[in-house]
Amino acid sequence: MQTINSLSPYNPFYDPLLDDNPGTGINYAPSYWCDTAGEPPENDGPVTSDLDVDVAIIGGGFTGLATAMFLAQEHGINATVLEANQVGWGCTSRNGGQGHLVWGRLSRSQWVKRWGVEMARQLHDNTLQGFEIFQQLTEHPLIDCEPYGHGNLLIAHSKAALRGLKTESRLCNEILSYKTRVLNHAEVKSDYLDDRECKGAMLEPVGIAIHPLKLAYGYSNIARSSGAKVHPSSPVLEWKQKNNIHYLHTPGGIVRARSVAIATAGYTSANLHPLTAFRNMPIMANSVVTRILTDEEIAACKLNTHLLITDTRKLRHYYRFLPDKRLQIGTRSAISGKDAQNPKNLKVVQDAIARKFPILKGIETPWFWHGWMDISHDMMPRIIQPDPSQQIFYSQGYSGNGVSFSAYASFKLAELIAGKPGQKNDLPIFTSPLPKHALQPFRRLGQHLLYSYYKHYDKFR
Ligand SMILES: Cc1cc2nc3c(=O)[nH]c(=O)nc-3n(C[C@H](O)[C@H](O)[C@H](O)COP(=O)(O)OP(=O)(O)OC[C@H]3O[C@@H](n4cnc5c(N)ncnc54)[C@H](O)[C@@H]3O)c2cc1C
After folding, report:
1. Ligand 1: residues within 6 Å at CB?
2. Residue spans of the chain under pLDDT 50
3. What is the pTM of this model?
4. Which of 229, 288, 326, 427 is most buried, judging by how many CB atoms fall within 10 Å of its CB?
5. Which CATH class is domain 4-96+212-281+377-442?
């Protein structure tokens, strides 16, 4: 078992577009979740000799751990998880803990536009079934992830955005039979919170907030007690294939596997495997957690809800009033790793707090961290065996919405790996690999231009 004492210091400047891999045995990002999750679960220590395994899973976040858990529990397959750093080290320990009813980043009206009403209905029905898998896990007796709240509040930051929410809500209610409600500003203020930017909101009935790292610890414990192995500090540095065997080179030994699942999300390096190279755009998001709010501050902000909250900006803010009376809030951050510590990133979040809740202007934010999300180039995730002649599988492209989706994705990924594809595998998340970007080398330049446009758009619309 590897302990925290033997770890290398956290490197905030890591950049998935430039660096070969996310390191070896590096400490967690300085998130609130790491400080409040308790002792990390037991693990099987780094790989220290060559191993022969049936299934190797690269990446030990929600996806890798839950896939190992489902492989063991549903299919009797004991997988070996190879994690470069620690259990849940990537986005899994850095997110907002918002379990949404979404797949990828498209709205339901965008599903209708892209695939038509019938497919949108199928997608929606399947998101509900997928969410049930997540919900059951959050209530599992061996998982102590503090689930609470039932619903999701989408706050309109402008009148135009509120008109958009009204249209979206009508589509949800009338076409998908998903009973959402539009609230006017006064209703939001009296029943939920007084966000001074709020022009109204859409309330969705589904959504669960959780402690993400405790959830990951739970997945890891169940996976291991069901027969899986979890090896931290074991990055796959090189990958060779010969006679249908995969040779995964880690610093401590070569892992020979018949099947490999890639669960590296926004931390996927271009040189890991050609099937995943350049299929995601790693985008940095950040978060702060404030000190405990006083009763006076809570009353002034009318914070009367623990629901998931997101605003409608293109560069959106996502936030929650945590059970211990702190505010958690985050947004998009720097474009490159080298700019990650630039004070202007923190200022963007602090300015948002001051605009939304003036009494909290200048409040101490003892926690500030960031992570790299895996944004799919068509905003939809994939769970797939991209080349049927190779025993390689991946689930990626969650586009910033992986807390709940990863539970369903792992369940389906385990089915594919076990060779027992279940129901509804004709949905667009299963039928094609993640698309590449046509102008791959210029993606960062495009991101600069897009962020400038989004800032302008968010201000004036
Ligand atoms: C600031 C922030 C806020 C977010 N908020 C939310 C939210 O509120 N709700 C929501 O739904 N989603 C949110 N997300 C997204 C969500 O956290 C992710 O979608 C989810 O955690 C992805 O899980 P994963 O297991 O697929 O990947 P990750 O948790 O990123 O894990 C990938 C792992 O792969 C490992 N790895 C990479 N390369 C190798 C290698 N070569 N060998 C071995 N291991 C390797 C990495 O070390 C890493 O631990 C947020 C993300 C960020 C950054």
Report:
1. 21-22, 58-64, 82-85, 89-92, 94-98, 100, 235-236, 263-267, 272, 285-287, 318, 330, 371, 373, 398, 400-403, 406
2. none
3. 0.97
4. 288
5. alpha beta
